[in-house]
Amino acid sequence: MLTPSTNLSDQIRAVVRQRIIEGDLAPDSRINEVHLAAELQVSRTPLREALTGLVAEGALTSIPRRGFFVRPLSAEEFRHIYPIRALLDPEALRLAGLPSPQRIARLERLNQRMEAAATAEERIHLDDAWHLELLADCPNPVLLELIQQFMLRTRRYELAYFRDPRHVQTASDDHRRLLVAAQGGDLEGAIEALRRNLTGGMAPILHWLETYPRAVEPETDKE
């Protein structure tokens, strides 16, 4: 059930993402905006805003005069986009330098909230907030913008990862290792912990994609 007190567009976006990873919205299927608006009891304005946001994330495609269609989850796409954060974020941390004690305290609180979060959407939101807080002192705004873009591009894949409490604990433990290194003045150790955190989901998500409908490698022409 959608909650009027929070942003409707964000809530609709979360519902559609969840239905995609659950397989309720089939790959390449068209989003029936009339039925979805009626089902969620929302107007077309927040619905359109949510669907347009999902296009920006890469979860949907928009075809003029035809509507919105579900983009298939693809192991190939995931292999292309997922490793990029492990290149961008460590460089941003190197530029930002070691976080201050005050920032470390905020990071610890965010980590605790992520551990206690009840839904995958909330966990991802807090994980993203944790990383942006860590990198807040990076002086390169273009680099930070790229990182935020890839946060959105990987979100529908990471939903599957963050549904599992064991993976949430793994991410939280990685965060703590980074903070221990930072508190000890070890920037290189913190960077390495960050890189480990950003690559840890590769194998579990690829394993999940093996069972997801049509989330397979594209066929190649046979001679």
Task: Describe this protein's structure.
The protein has 223 residues and is mainly alpha-helical. The protein folds into two domains: 63 residues, Winged helix-like DNA-binding domain superfamily/Winged helix DNA-binding domain (Arc Repressor Mutant, subunit A), CATH 1.10.10.10; 136 residues, Up-down Bundle (Four Helix Bundle (Hemerythrin (Met), subunit A)). It is 68% helix and 4% strand. The protein has eleven helices and two strands, in the order αααββαααααααα. The chain has a two-stranded antiparallel ribbon with strand order 1-2. A hairpin with a 3-residue loop joins strand 1 and strand 2. It is elongated and about 55 Å long. The chain starts with 7 loop residues before the first helix and ends in a 12-residue tail after the last helix. The C terminus is likely disordered.
Distance between the termini: 52 Å
CATH architecture call of the largest domain? Up-down Bundle
User: Which class of the largest domain in CATH terms?
Assistant: Mainly Alpha
CA radius of gyration is 19 Å
The shape, in one word, is elongated
- The H-and-E topology, N to C, reads as HHHEEHHHHHHHH
**Which fold name is given in CATH as the topology of the largest domain?**
Four Helix Bundle (Hemerythrin (Met), subunit A)
Structural class call reads mainly alpha
User: Major β-sheet, in short?
Assistant: 2 strands, antiparallel
Tell me the helix content: 55-70%
DSSP helix count? 11
* Tally of individual domains: 2
Percent of residues in beta strands? under 5%
Enumerate the spans where pLDDT stays under 50 for 5 or more consecutive residues. Answer: 214-223
The counted number of beta strands is: 2
Mean pLDDT: 90
- Going by CATH, the homologous superfamily of the largest domain would be GntR ligand-binding domain-like
Biggest sheet strand order reads 1-2
